[in-house]
Design goal:
The radius of gyration is 17 Å and the shape is globular. The protein is built from 4 helices and 10 strands. It has a single domain, classed as q2cbj1_9rhob like domain (Jelly Rolls, Sandwich). About 15% of the residues lie in helices and about 25% in strands. The protein has helices at about 20, 25-30, 30-40, 145-155, and strands spanning about 15, 50-55, 65-70, 80-85, 100, 110-115, 120-125, 155-160, 165-170, 175. With about 180 residues, the protein is α+β, with helices and mostly antiparallel strands.
């Protein structure tokens, strides 16, 4: 831990089950408004498997590399993961906003995060590496050089939002976060 930074500014992530443990988070995430929106998108019996706060502190936490959320929140027989990201503060290029690759939600899932009985620790299992035409496959799990320009060259666009904006996306879409610069 860096002693030159207050502990509260070192936090990167809190959660994975805030909808279970925090009454305010539960009230929002299970509200009629959220449920109606999810049902309007075609989800018949939505289940909330994960919730968290992700802090974008300057120089803390780093990048989140190219990934599909359905790799971690995998459902069968078809992918039904739906991500909802509510910005509590403005998200900009300077503070590490979300980047997405338009059209990637129509691609198959590339990898699944799984626990093997032989190895014991979680690891990625390639499930659709025959989709070589995808611009993200060659560098999934890392960021291209010169983050902004490199991300744009790979077909990604930044999603800058204001506080209170909600971004909703299928778990199959490719996304990443560059590290906060400020």
């Amino acid at each position: 831990i860096r002693s030159d930074i207050p502990k509260a500014e070192l936090v990167n992530k809190v959660g994975h089950s805030l909808h279970v443990d925090d009454p305010i988070f539960r009230k929002y995430s299970t509200s009629r408004k959220v449920l109606e929106m999810v049902r309007d998108l075609g989800y018949k019996a939505p289940v909330l498997p994960q919730s968290m706060y992700i802090f974008k502190q300057p120089l803390i936490g780093g990048a989140v590399t190219s990934h599909q959320d359905s790799s971690f929140l995998h459902t069968t027989p078809r992918q039904t993961c739906l991500g909802m990201w509510l910005a509590l503060d403005p998200a900009t290029l300077e503070n590490g906003c979300l980047w997405v690759r338009p059209g990637s939600h129509r691609e198959p899932l590339r990898r699944v995060f799984a626990r093997s009985t032989e190895e014991g620790s979680p690891h990625f299992v390639d499930v659709n590496m025959d989709i070589k035409a995808s611009p993200a496959v060659a560098w999934e799990g890392e960021l291209p050089a010169s983050e902004g320009d490199g991300l744009r060259a790979k077909g990604f666009i930044p999603v800058e939002v204001d506080a209170g904006d909600l971004v909703v996306f299928p778990g199959s879409r490719a996304a990443c976060f560059a590290p906060a610069r400020k």
